[in-house]
Amino acid sequence: MHGRDALFPDFDQLTDAENALTERLSQARRNYASRKATSAELTPDWLEELQSKRFDQAEDLEPLMDWVIDALDTGSVQMTHPGYLGLFNPAPTFAAECADRIASAFNPQICVYSHAPAAVEIEQHVINELARRAGLPKGAGGHFTSGGAEANSTAVLCALQAKCPEYSDKGIYAFGGQPTIYVSKESHLAWLKMAHSAGIGRNAVRLIATDGQGQMDAGCLAAAIDEDLKSGCVPVLIVATAGTTNAGMIDPLKDCSTLAQEHDMWFHVDAAWGGAMIASTAGRSVLNGIEQADSITIDAHKWFATTMGAGMFLTSRPDIPAQVFRISASYMPESEAAKDFYVNSNQWSRRFVGLRLFLALGAAGWDGYGDHVERSIRLTNRFTENLRKAGWTEANRSLMGVSCMVPPEGNDAVQRYVDAVHEDGRFWISKAVFEGKPVLRACVTNGRTDEATIDQLTAFLTTL
Question: Where are the alpha helices (DSSP H) in 148-288?
Fold first, then answer.
């Protein structure tokens, strides 16, 4: 099957090709533990073969798909490998994979309610349930995003709009002074890019010192706000991180909320990773204070383990994004801000990504996700304790399943251990910087990682 027939095959051909792909992917899954977790270097022959595909001649689809699968089998870090204890990239749930197939078959344009009312209602239901579980008040809303960066960027725009309603039309000129936003030095520094994109400039971002344990220092935050007010700046946004990327730490949510209310600022919680703790009955209390947020970022494609990318923006003030993204176009149907995502979010055309979490939550329930989260924490704690018994030092005290460890030789030896693990190939971990010093970072993101995997990795590290 090639040429135009490959684009729109008859249904018998389509079924045969789809079944062949399913079998090929099943084979890849069965072999996931036998391949290396690390990415192989792309060979000159492979790159030459890629460059030769100029699309002047049609190829059969099935062998072409096999070629891609073979390339991904070795030419990428294997995030579905049980030995992957790396960043917040998960092995996706089977339900999320099924959702992608369903969404692909129907391909709804979800940003317009009249075109896909069922899909929009499903997504909005998921958002409403997440908001309820997070403790946001009745009437809270939000939408799915391409990822945490878009969700956090939405928070910046909402903070500016809420502080100065004329911002949506006049931009930065509507403010009487420099708008400023406040984030921890240990936060994801994409906030600098967001400030640039919003037109307030990178210098608007205040990187607040931490308390020595990777959490924002509330006293330093208060002092920074007071200093900016005295110099004529306009503080608009406080961002508290719930699950820092490098160490899984949680900023003081209640203190941040209090300061935001005191100074009429928007309070946003970046819980892209840690937001999944709302599923855990035992661990939910670590997020106390998140219910006071004006908005929250949670990535479904992190601890909720959907396929990439599926961020979420939740807000207790849905009227504000409706002001930020309002638009009118003659070729679009009459819009309703609560249901038409193109007038309450940044994207105009978007995939039906919310189905991934809908099916997964439906299949597992909150209790199933709670078990998933708690299991991840137990395995990460096992990793920490194994190394501590071998003389390593725990650098962080994360309640969110991220372990930052220092070998007996000290911080300068971290890179040697990471390189050795990657050379071995059975596992993938990373080096991070925590409170200014290198640490070995591990985080269980794969639901198939087990105690044996943790014990094998720690045995390898302690015999180097």
Answer: 148-163, 167-170, 190-198, 218-230, 253-262
DSSP per position, 63-93: HHHHHHHHHHHHSS--TTSTTB--SSPPPPP
Q: Are strands 311-315 and 295-299 parallel, antiparallel or unpaired?
A: antiparallel
pLDDT single digits (tens) 356-390: 999 999 999 999 999 999 999 999 999 999 999 99
Give the CA angle between residues 93, 418, 457 to the nearest 5°. 60
pLDDT digits (tens, 9 = 90+) for 397-439: 999 999 999 999 999 999 999 999 999 999 999 999 999 999 9
Task: Report which residue type is found at 310.
Answer: A
Backbone angles phi, psi at 266, to 5 degrees: -75, 135
Secondary structure of 367-405 in the HEC alphabet? HHHHHHHHHHHHHHHHHHHHHHHCCCEECCCCCCCEEEE
Q: What angle do CA 328, 331, 333 make, to 5 degrees?
A: 70
Question: Are 270 and 187 in contact, with CB atoms under 8 Å apart?
Answer: yes
Is residue 439 helix, strand or coil? strand
Q: Give the predicted TM-score (pTM) of the model.
A: 0.94
Q: What are the residues facing 311 on neighbouring strands? A: 145, 299
Angle at 152 between CA 148 and CA 154, to 5 degrees: 120
Say which residue the tokens 């002074």 belong to: 177
Residue 402 in contact with residue 439, Cβ under 8 Å? no
